[in-house]
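User: I'm writing a tutorial on reading structure tokens. Could you give me a worked example: one chain, its sequence, then its tokens, then a sentence or two explaining what the tokens reveal?
Assistant: Sure. Here is the example chain.
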Amino acid sequence: MPPVDPAATVLARFGGAGPLAQLLRLDRSAVHRWALPKHRGGSGGLIPARHHQRLLALAAAQGIALSPADLVGTPTATGDPPRAGADDG
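And here are its predicted structure tokens:
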């Protein structure tokens, strides 16, 4: 199963870190860090939960398809169960 990267999904749907940062009224670099790997000071593709509700509201207001599953990286059903320790950093 390919890795799930909520930050890449959300950034692509909103047109990048710059436009999304403006909508959220956050610094562009803060939003950009969501997509960076942890070893480079990022969040490893995860979006902080404190932004989830606002992202869903903005997406709805702008006609952007976005679900809660997109924000947490819920893998699509493939028939393969999740591997133990797959989230260990």
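What the tokens reveal: Residues 6-68 form a domain with the 434 Repressor (Amino-terminal Domain) fold (CATH 1.10.260). Residues 77-89 have pLDDT under 50 and may be disordered.
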